[in-house]
Amino acid sequence: MLNKLNEKVWNFFSSVDLAVALFIIISSGAAIGTIIPQSIEPEPIIKFFSKFMSISSAHKVYEIISLFDLNNVYHSWWFIFLLFMFALNLIVCSIDRLPSLLKSFKTSPKPYPMQILENMPVKKTLKINDDKILDKIKEIFQNRGFSTHIFETQEGLQIHAKKWTKTRLAVYLTHLSILIILAGALIGSFFGFRGSMNIVEGTGLNFVISDDGKAIPLDFEVRCEKFEAEYYENSSMPKAYRSYIKIIENGKPVMENIVIEVNQPFTYKGITFYQASYGFQPTEHAEFRFTYFDKTGKEFNINAHFEEKFKIPQTSVTASVTDFSPALGVDEEGKLFNMTSDMINPAVLVTFEENGKKTQQWILKRIPETWQTPYGTLRFNELWGAQFTGLQVRKDPGVPLIYIGSILMCIGLFICLFLRPVNYFVVISKNQINFYCPTSKGIVERQIDEIIKKLKGEQL
Fold first, then answer.
1. Whole-prediction pTM value?
2. CA 174/CA 411 separation, integer angstroms
């Protein structure tokens, strides 16, 4: 009774039908994870479904989604269980079939019955009378990398030529690669994390906010020394934006002058930082930076905080920044307004004072014509410490395994597709040679035709 139960369980897990069913279910689960926003917070999901139904219905849908962890598919218990079942199915299938395959490599070859040969899809006949035909056929096959076995049968001599027989093991290499990829994915799921950091210029953080809202501490500090964005001329579209980062450990910088750009991430201690976003977030430490040019062209660098007075070099004029706009625009009536919070067209309103007389002028960073003032050229360079860089952060210790598994899978699939076992059967009877092959492919027939031409002494 117990043996029958064990046999049923073994047959269940070694079933190809189970593998197909699991693959379909896992693929469907992954598709659900692509369609439904993957977020622990309810707002993004409710907002998504409210496009198609009422708010109250969207809330009910969220409750169902949350119940089955459909908003966190790839970390849900049922998805991990399916992956475990798929891995177990692969292992049992391999164990069930591999011994018989290995045994076939050690088994001495035997002649095939003519009934089987005659039913093969490829059959070609050559009538020839040559006493040395056997040696010629053996030489042709051996020159092409085939091993040959010769048997004496009632119908005559039977030659079994075969090549790449051990490439049948490639399917198990593919199975192994899938298991390695699954192991890498599970390791990344349990021991890795994904999150973000918003770091204001001149400040640093030693923690990451994960996708589920938890603070993950780091044993080092990531400091943003500077953030800059470049825009296309006469456009609000960014051409490039980058962060200049410093890594600090135990109060001392260990890496400096690190540049993180889009498609140019930075990795430290297995944690990768990606440039993802940026924004405007002024602080009391934000500093306006100018360059003043006197009449001789000499440059003077000026740094000042908001409403802090500074002196115009070589003059009796004082100035201060009394207003700021990250994106100054002009409406149809000629009135100034702020277009957005992004630093698209930063501008400062500078108040000049000389002998008690005050004048004001807007100076725009991207428009040199506005740099000219009655007191000389005053170029607005930047507002430092008012922008933050948004970094996506990811730690995935399973990535090396996924790379290894992917390479092994490519090798296994290449062997399975392009280095399949090839078998030819040749029966030499009186004044006649019959060629057989169990594989019906154009290339197989062409190879047999080439062998026949060579036996006839024709040029290929």
1. 0.70
2. 8
